[in-house]
Specification:
29% of the residues lie in helices and 30% in strands. With 380 residues, the chain is α+β, with helices and mostly antiparallel strands. The strands form four sheets. Strands 1, 12, 13, 15, 16, 17 and 18 form a seven-stranded mixed sheet that branches. Helix 3 packs antiparallel against helix 4.
């Protein structure tokens, strides 16, 4: 995954939208670049946007066919939609559909118990995962977002969670569903219709997800993503004044983003190849390439000529080297400042051993920078 270092490189743009919600952020989904923000680091209750993290952990720890029993705690959770009965059994993928589409709180409890055995143990996993994703001002106290004074996040942190979730194909499939039928495994004859609470899936061109949220304390919340052409954006709305303006705010942000952003190809992995010398190996060199292509979102008034790529690679590495091993990184800079980095990985393995070329590399290492081009031509 791309490592993003957020810098303020914004230049004058079209008038930013007027957002009624207290906090909001708009990012480009592949890099996380911030396009717009408003009070994005102010902690707020995330309401049912919490379930994005519950879904991520469910997908990471359960198979689609895992059978999940509905406990009394899950069955009697506040604001359940599916009228669970203790002892019901639901397949994990159906349960996550219900949780994400209609925001069923009991489904989130059932997933939490299936993953970790208890809600407290699951919230520990939630907070650990949030930290791993770079969230710096988030604390989860439950799996569903029901009010709790120790349950909070920020628009910026929610965007990081949403960005990761949308990189997972099964997560993306779930949050893009408009309608589905939820089937019980026991009792087998029980089923229920589900219709996504994200009304933008039907009304906004290119909408791909993600999750609504609402409590009296949190106000209207929404994680909304949309794709047009080669640009995908994620908007986070928190503490909107009512259930409806969150959708209006998200549309304004997405429209602003699509009118302001252009994707610029900066690295084509098939056209970049570097060479690193190997000591104590059966081969004297290893070829490295970028792990992935890199397209970077520029705002329309930013100059693509200011985008430059630099490479951080050691001159010499030790064998043994595995195919795909990270050897260095490529840095993308705008006006001299690093924006993002992607790994440079070995194209082939180099086993530890002896070769004349590798021995020569060891002997010439003190002056290898001077003789680099000659050696590369010799070993090619």
């Amino acid at each position: 995954m791309i490592t993003l270092i957020l810098l303020n490189i914004k230049t004058a743009q079209a008038t930013e939208p007027v957002i009624l919600a207290d906090t909001a952020i708009l990012i480009e989904a592949s890099t996380g670049r911030v396009i717009y923000e408003k009070n994005a680091d102010v902690p707020r209750p995330p309401a049912s946007m919490t379930k994005m993290m519950t879904c991520i952990l469910g997908l990471e720890n359960l198979t689609k066919r895992t059978l999940v029993p509905i406990s009394e705690t899950a069955a009697y959770a506040e604001d359940n939609t599916f009228y669970w009965t203790p002892g019901d059994v639901i397949q994990a993928d159906e349960l996550m559909l219900g949780m994400m589409m209609v925001s069923d709180n009991g489904a989130a409890v059932a997933i939490a118990q299936a993953v970790a055995g208890s809600i407290s143990d699951f919230t520990y996993l939630m907070n650990q995962r949030a930290y791993e994703l770079g969230c710096t001002n988030t604390n989860f106290a439950n799996p569903n977002g029901l009010p709790n004074e120790n349950h909070y996040s920020t628009a910026r942190d929610m965007a990081k969670i949403a960005m990761y979730g949308m990189s997972v194909p099964d997560f993306r499939d779930i949050v893009s569903m408009q309608k589905a039928i939820i089937h019980w495994r026991s009792p087998a004859e029980k089923w229920s219709e589900a219709e996504n609470t994200n009304e933008l899936l039907e009304t906004y061109d290119g909408m791909t997800g993600i999750k609504t949220g609402w409590t009296r304390a949190a106000g209207g919340c929404l994680a909304a993503s949309a794709i047009r052409g080669n640009i995908e954006l994620i908007a986070i709305i928190m503490h909107s004044i009512d259930n409806h303006t969150r959708f209006d705010d998200a549309k304004k942000l997405l429209d602003y983003g699509f009118n302001s952003v252009k994707m610029t190809r900066t690295i084509n992995k098939d056209r970049v190849e570097k060479v690193v010398f190997v000591r104590n190996g059966k081969n004297a060199i290893v070829h490295v390439r970028p792990l992935e292509d890199l397209n970077f979102p520029l705002l329309k008034d930013e100059d693509p000529k200011k985008l430059k790529v630099s490479y951080e690679l050691p001159k010499v590495v030790d064998a043994s080297i595995k195919e795909g091993q990270i050897i260095g990184k490529a840095n993308l800079k705008y006006d001299g400042k690093i924006l993002t980095s992607i790994p440079l990985t070995a194209e082939e393995k180099v086993e530890k051993g002896f070769s004349i070329g590798s021995k020569l590399v060891g002997l010439m290492e003190p002056v290898i920078s001077i003789a680099q081009n000659v050696l590369i031509a010799f070993f090619a």
